[in-house]
Specification:
Layout lengths: L2 H6 L14 E3 L5 E5 L5 E5 L8 H12 L2 E6 L11 H7 L3 H7 L9 H16 L5 E6 L15 E7 L16 H11 L7 E4 L9 H11 L3 E3 L18 H14 L1
Parallel strand pairs: 3-4, 3-5, 5-6, 6-7, 7-8
Antiparallel strand pairs: 1-2, 2-4
Length: 256
């Protein structure tokens, strides 16, 4: 594969026919969100760092067939984006990335965490009284955990949590106030209210990320046994695990 193709590999054909046209969500940060045409159990699914790839959209579409009303935010780039390794590295240096994921100020808060809670509020308004689930993957794997701060979120899935990449891994990218809200929010929820998944030899989602999630959530988090090998994505791409798919589905069916 050429260097040019790796950096600019994006905007592949993607079938969005299972979803309505996107609606904008958020105040300080406004992002488009696709909502499935079918399903009645609300589920937020956050895409990975490579983008809203065809395999990610396929997973979300499959979940609509399982009876979930899927909220599928487009966090960056265009639907069908699947950046290669060099493209991801370049994107992490961009202004678009920093606007979502950069820690700022004394609190070290990152805009994406507050935005996820805004989206949960919108989902709750759309579905009064319903239990809500969130799934995060890779860059968003740990950020999905912030949903536990909202009493209406009853199930969180952290797939190969990978942020932060280098420093402050123990924070999972959440500010101290956000972590305190998660600790308070887990009280009263069915144990476990969160699940976490990774490959054993994954160098992106590391053991330190999983320990950080376990330290934050304690018995409220069930860590699925690490999958063997050097894979990364557990629900999408060619390394998707049928066992993880089935376990996530069982968990969500029990909570939502």
């Amino acid at each position: 594969m050429s260097l040019f193709h790796d950096v600019f590999r994006m905007s592949q054909a993607v079938d969005l026919s299972a979803f309505h046209s996107p609606v904008s969500v958020g105040t300080a940060l406004s992002l488009p969100v696709y909502v499935s045409k079918t399903g009645d159990r609300p589920l937020v699914v956050l895409h990975e760092l490579p983008g809203m790839s065809p395999s990610f959209v396929d997973y979300c579409t499959r979940m609509t067939g399982e009876g979930f009303k899927v909220y599928m935010p487009l966090l960056f780039k265009a639907p069908g984006t699947e950046m290669g390794m060099l493209g991801c590295a370049a994107f992490c240096l961009s202004r678009e990335f920093r606007a979502l994921f950069a820690a700022s100020g004394p609190s070290r808060a990152r805009p994406i965490a507050a935005w996820i809670l805004e989206l949960v509020q919108k989902v709750a308004e759309d579905n009064p009284g319903a239990a809500i689930g969130t799934i995060g993957m890779c860059m968003t794997g740990g950020f999905a955990i912030v949903g536990i701060a909202d009493p209406r979120v009853q199930a969180v899935v952290a797939c190969q949590p990978s942020a932060p990449f280098f420093r402050e891994i123990e924070t999972l990218g959440l500010s101290e106030a956000e972590r305190d809200s998660v600790r308070a929010g887990k009280t009263g929820k069915t144990i476990p209210c969160a699940k976490a998944y990774r490959y054993e030899k994954d160098r992106i989602s590391r053991e330190a990320h999983m320990r950080a999630a376990q330290d934050l959530l304690g018995p409220s988090l069930h860590r699925y046994p690490d999958l063997p090998g050097k894979g990364h994505a557990t629900l999408t791409t060619q390394t998707a695990s049928p066992e993880v798919y089935a376990d996530v589905l069982t968990f969500l069916n029990a909570r939502l």
